[in-house]
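Two records follow; treat each independently.
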Amino acid sequence: MDQIINQMLKQYSSLTVYDKKNSIKEVVQEIMLCGLSRAGFFKTAAFYGGTALRIIYGLDRFSEDLDFSLKEPNSLFDFAEFMPTLEKEIRSYGLNFSIEEKVKSVESGIKSAFLKGNTKEHIIMFYADEQLAHSIGSKELIKVKLEVDTDPPDYATFETKYRLLPIPYEITLYDMPSLFAGKIHAVICRAWKNRVKGRDLYDYVFYLSRGAKVNLKHLLARLEQSGYITEKDQTTIEDVKRMLCKRFETIDYSQAKQDVKPFIRNFDALNVWNKDFFCEITEDLEEND
């Protein structure tokens, strides 16, 4: 196995099959970020979402996807121009992954692509565990989804961070208040359909536990883009708190807990989850100056 990958892998506690699959995904995610940086992707785009929160700020849960936003709207953005460089970067570490853009039947502002590699092959490569590999289906795939918002709401603010592995590289991402705005928008507006996104609630608690403040202007731009409010509403931080509490009153917390459990280790953190808990901690929500 590549020496750098072995070094990266030591950061993870991989006790179960599930842990090992996630560790491979997390290593691959960081190599992808490095490849995108080397391809010049972050000149026009920024990293955000749960994986950004985990990699940069230490969120203690696994996050599956890599989410990005253009810094300025651009309907002509073409993900394909970055794919050859990204795939070359992945393969330079001896990994056998391919990347392909997802063709959507309905046009939207979100461009998606998937990186795919054979699970059995990479379990053997990363862990040299033939016995474990025999328990995995020959066609099972490790998948990492990339999404780019080509029509981002206004007023996000950005920062630059540096990572040392697999090699030193530079990354542009939403700053903490703007990341928090995106998460609050998800808590209020995400179409949960048949299951609750307990991960959104978990991340919401993480932000507040770190004393994060919200980029209110960016949050309101997101809520306006979703049709949840209008520009005429003149929404304040107190209005946002009321929106959140209204949302917290409708949640099935048993379902929310089940959603997030596969992504965390300490289930005890979920014991206090109920509407009273979330409404009370929301009183501490503040906007960024």
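The next record belongs to a different protein.
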Amino acid sequence: MAINAALSSDTGWQAHLSLDFQHQHGRTILGRCRHHGPLRVQRPFYPEGDSVCHVAILHPPGGVVGGDELALDAVLSPDCRALITTPAAGKFYRSAGPIARQTQRLMVAAEAALEWLPQENIVFNGARVHARTRIELQGNAGFLGWEIVCLGRPAANEAFETGEYQQDFELWRDGEPIYLERGRYTGGSDALRAPWGLRGQPVVATLLCAGSPPEAVAAIRAAWAEGPARLPDEWSTVSQLDGALIGRYLGPSAVRARQFFLMAWNLLRPMVWQRPPCPSRFWTT
């Protein structure tokens, strides 16, 4: 992926971050980290010992405007274990016309495992955004991750009446697609309110887990049913497709979407990798 100039007065910020995780002497390290423009990482953390490298992606400007282009490439070599998150919600602000683009390509080699656990993206009324995340797995590589989108700002009584948000969320293994999601949301459109669409709910989210055992679906459903009472106009589900477990949330609250996915993550992590949950420090700051 080409690295463009860091800033253009006509197009906005152009930022690129390239991460290369490597396995050395029983430890996953961030062997190479290259950045251009306002996209960074804090130093790697090891809250659960050397086996898993925790990294947070930072965007110092704090928000994305029309014309900004942010790109992340992350590569995990064989035997690596990495957890990538963000310290805060992403914010996409109103655009005067140009589209903001966020592209993430995550490549995981055989015998490696990636957890992609960003906080939600908040799409302000009037924003124009194209976000794409593509995960490419090789051999028996593992993946567990999610994407959470909030259209508008419900807490400020701001609906998504104008603008557009396009989301591509893809999971591939050995060049074959496992899950392809294409979301196209136009502000004020019938699709945001109709029963066949988002039913008037601002938060839509997807969780993916490659290689989960068959009993995971029933365990997640039972745990969620025993948890806090469902909010009005809230829908959540989990199912197993060929090659991946799929979790979906539609409702009024990004907090509730995170609760649902964190509950699933707490159950899936020991099942898939025989590793207890270790919440990121950034989720409580």
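Discussion point: Residues 9-284 form one domain. How would you locate this feature using only the token line?
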